Amino acid sequence: MLFFLLVGMFIVDADIAMQKKTEVKILLELSNHHATFAVDPVLKTEGVIDLLEDEALERFDDRMHENGGYRREQAMFVPQADSVTTDPIPFSRHYVDFRSWRNDLQLRLQYNGTTLVTERATKGPARPGGGMLQITVVTERGEELQLAPKKMVGPSHVVVAYIHERPFLPILPSHSFPVVSVEELKD
Q: Which domain of life does the protein's organism represent (predicted)?
């Protein structure tokens, strides 16, 4: 009986982790969408869509706070009492500008247990319809997690977050997973 109770708790814990992953992904997508409206108005009149990165990050922060109750401290979103996660979410962002979006891009990020940093951004060959974005996150144990490739259709703002959540019961393992949002700039 105790065995079945433990299995049931493990399944419930895994289900909660998947729900958190989905909710954080939606939160990142909404925040990133809002950030991509921070385009340079002067360049826009010349037909060039370029991101104002400081304004974009402010817009991203505003949405993360409004929708999820998170506040940013450097490169980490700290949850409040009503947030979906209980542990801080480290993130890294990368802007693919109007000169580079047609090229393939490989991003390699490193999670060291507290921060997520871009280790390498490798530009590849150009494709007429837009480059492929491949993201690899290396965990603190050296495990390489490859996210599904994304196709860029214009200048893009890329945000990668790494969720490392404690389980609801201390006897269960923690849950860790990367989440990515790629949004084309909005003109």
A: Bacteria
